[in-house]
Amino acid sequence: MPKYWGFKCYMVDEEYCPYNNLPLAQHITRTHLKSERNLPELYDSLDVSNLASQLNNEVEETVLIEAEGYRKKVKDKLLGTEDGEDFASALTKGINRVIMNHLSKQYSHILEAQVDFEPRIESTWYAGGMNPPENIRRLRDGRAWSREYKDDPTDRIMVFLGSPILTLRSVQPLPMVMSNSELESSSLELPEWKFDPRVVGTQTEQNRRIVNVPGYFPGDTHRFGQISFHKRHHAKNTFGEIVDEDNSLFRQAIVCSFGWLQAQANMLGFNSFNDIAYPLATQTVITDGKHWSFFAYQMNTITFHTHFAQEQPKRNVCWGSDEMKLFESVDGEKVVGFNEEVLKTLLKFYVNAPQERLGVNLTPYLSSEEKIAADYEDDDKRQWLEREYKFLTSNRPRYQLPYEIYAWEKIYKIDNKLGLWTRD
Amino acid sequence: MSTRWYPIYQKGGPQLRVFLPNFWMKLVRPPVEQPSNVVQFQCSMEMTQFDIRNYLEKIYKIKCIDVRTRIHMPKTRRDPGEGYVIKDDDIKYAYITLPKDQVFKFPDLFGVDEKTKQDELDHERSLKEAKKGFQEYLEKNKERRNLPSWYSV
């Protein structure tokens, strides 16, 4: 099938997490997960206790308002959404508004930050080092010269579909959590994974075009992610094992962080075959309104297709905290057991300021003359580029239908040559 | 459990009948390499994912974390005598995920000892050599087709 209609893709959905999916997530994103459950040292140096005490009441107020609103909404409906997905979304937006209003006076990076509500995030990359699918094995086995390579690993196209509640973007990248020398000196281990992703329930799509959408259009000045907030209502669908609920959160954090950063890297001119020239970092929050988990992520490489699957020494790193409760319950007009530690951690994420990377060309592979489609002088070229780009990223199906083999053709003309149609 | 009806007794019919259950599961060796906590079964077409879970949990006391099924359509083939196209019955496959600390290894049912293995290898090797020798012979005599082998020295 020509790639005109798209590629066979392995879907990594943020909200669909089959059992024991963490090793696969780590393999396809090449992420080392820090075993100790705390955020990196970078965050210890940020002092936010004053800010937290100033914002304490306002955040409590937001919790009350959103809980009240949610209760009204649920009461109106006979069958309310019990998982609190709407509550998480409303509360996160409320708290973000409170924090940004307060901090934008002091911090210029908060004032300048771009906030996107529920942006579309889609990311595509090649992951290698996994067993070949059965059809590829058979194909290799059928040719004498390729028989000895029949069990060699193959590349797979992974597609991440994200659905954050809101994201913050900045002009400059976040500071690196681990410096290059630290990365080289520490041994960052990965779990071994060699199976086909489908053996643990990963879904595939047959015709899907390669698309990278980091939540903004090309040419945007705010190209670097700062914080993304994600829902965790899917955690209800775990498999009754506490260990796996914990793992599914880490799995979500890893795929969300890497997926978003990879799409950003693609906008900066890097891809699976042109590795990033400098590390990128992001901060991820997963919440259902009451429980909050915080993650920091540093992306050091995006090149780990089959040729690099074994040799690539670089690893991406994920730090995560244990989940914390923002409050115990909402009792009438009072928030019971408000936990300021959660607010402090959240504030640290906001206060962590993006910095200019001195002496680093942020887009070494991109042309300095033609930065966006509008810069092309040739009318035909510009129009073609814009039309095709918009069409490809829209994920609309092609007007021309893909070639189809009907079931009767497969049975009577291909599998069994009955010869009834030879006169055609 | 069986949904088959007990036929009314007719004179001369068998007194005792054995009714096999509708639900059965057959453990199969997975053709694709899988994690050690995934087990593959063929099962009866009527079984749903709930049935499979209950079957394993209630009868065999096996904790199933996740059950996935698919229906496999076998290849069509020509009838050897009549020549029309026939197809075998569909097969329902079930993939059972055990808790991740459990390991399932497909048993070696027909344990082959070292001597038999060595014999088989020797046999294969001699067969290969014979084939190779014949190919060489064909290659050498391709210009002189249909000539008996004793014709040349």
What can be said about the biggest beta sheet of chain B?
Answer: 4 strands, antiparallel
Largest interface here, residues on each chain?
Answer: A-B, 20 and 19 residues
Number of helices of chain A: 11
Strand percent estimate of chain A? 15-25%
Contiguous runs where pLDDT drops below 50 for at least 5 residues of chain B: none
Order of helices and strands of chain B: EEHEEEEH
Q: Return residue spans of chain A where pLDDT drops below 50 for at least 5 consecutive residues.
A: 78-82
What is the strand tally of chain A?
14
**Average pLDDT score of chain A:** 89
Keywords (chain B): Mitochondrion, Ribonucleoprotein, Ribosomal protein
Subcellular location (chain B): Mitochondrion
Subunit structure (chain B): Component of the mitochondrial ribosome large subunit (39S) which comprises a 16S rRNA and about 50 distinct proteins.
InterPro entries (chain B): Nucleotide-bd_a/b_plait_sf (IPR012677), Ribosomal_uL23-like (IPR013025), Ribosomal_uL23/eL15/eS24_sf (IPR012678)
Task: Characterize the structure shown.
The complex is a heterodimer of chains A (424) and B (153). Helices cover 33% and strands 19% of the residues of chain A. Chain A has 424 residues and is of the alpha+beta class. Chain A has two domains: 364 residues, no CATH class; 47 residues, no CATH class. In chain A, helix 1 packs parallel to helix 7, helix 2 packs antiparallel against helix 3 and helix 2 crosses helix 9. Chain A is globular and about 80 Å long. Chain B has 153 residues and is of the alpha+beta class. Among the domains of chain B are: 73 residues, RRM (RNA recognition motif) domain (Alpha-Beta Plaits, 2-Layer Sandwich); 34 residues. Chain B is extended, with a radius of gyration of 26 Å. The relative contact order of chain B is 0.13.
